[in-house]
Amino acid sequence: MMSKTKIIGHRGAKGHYPENTMLGFTKAVEMGADGIEFDVHMSNDKKLVVMHDESLDRTTTDRGIIKDWKIFDLKKVKTGIKFRNMSKYNHTWHRERVPELFEVLALFAKENTVLNVELKTDVYEYEGIEREVHHTVATRGMLDRVVFSSFNLATLDRLKKHDPNVRIAYLVNELPEDYEQMMEAHDFEAYHLRVDSALENMEALKKNGIFFRIWTVNEREHMEQFIDAGVRAIITDYPDLALGLRDS
Ligand code: G3P
Ligand code: CA
Known about the structure:
Elements: E1 6-10, H1 22-31, E2 35-42, E3 48-50, H2 71-74, H3 101-107, E4 114-119, H4 129-138, E5 146-150, H5 153-162, E6 167-172, H6 179-186, E7 190-194, H7 195-200, H8 202-208, E8 212-215, H9 220-229, E9 233-236, H10 239-247
Parallel strand pairs: 1-2, 1-9, 2-4, 4-5, 5-6, 6-7, 7-8, 8-9
Antiparallel strand pairs: 2-3
Bound molecules: SN-glycerol-3-phosphate and calcium ion.
């Protein structure tokens, strides 16, 4: 029997809660999401920082570039306040701080949640990030729960070289023509494919749905299409909506 499409909360539950925060991750899993997706960068003192942008400017109370900051200072930055226009906002969001990777892992150590760790190496390479991320996950015995993804193929190849057993997923805006050969050559577990390209490649999805997690799927109609096509997962800002459709 085909297994159910998994529902993965994008940056937590980005449609309802501040992105890439412990609050957002907790809420996504409370909603029933099968997993969460989040982004990792490296600070100046080589700590693994969970945030989407390279810069602090959009989502935090400070300004600057993550790679120039020490973790001690990054921890003073607030990550909930900028989202005070969201309907679920309340004053406790002021407590949100930049999570480190180990904190997110600890939060879900006792759950079955799938963790999609995106290594954000497409602007800065963050030398050594692959080994650091791998070490942090491996020492907590959580490698079997984690899928590593990246837009940077060299990052994925480095991870795989370091540990051939890790699950890697290639993040792409467009489906490569030779996607099946590439998959074999690099030993991808899956493609993480952008929603518009996925819609243009529904036949490939129907044939090989198991190879694909689709991002970022926020429209009800698209959720239904991908669930029907049997894709492995959809990554969405609204896990509650997707779960309702999948389980109805
Ligand atoms: O992992 C899927 C998606 O998160 C990739 O795009 O920009 O939201 O990190 P972005
Ligand atoms: Ca991401």
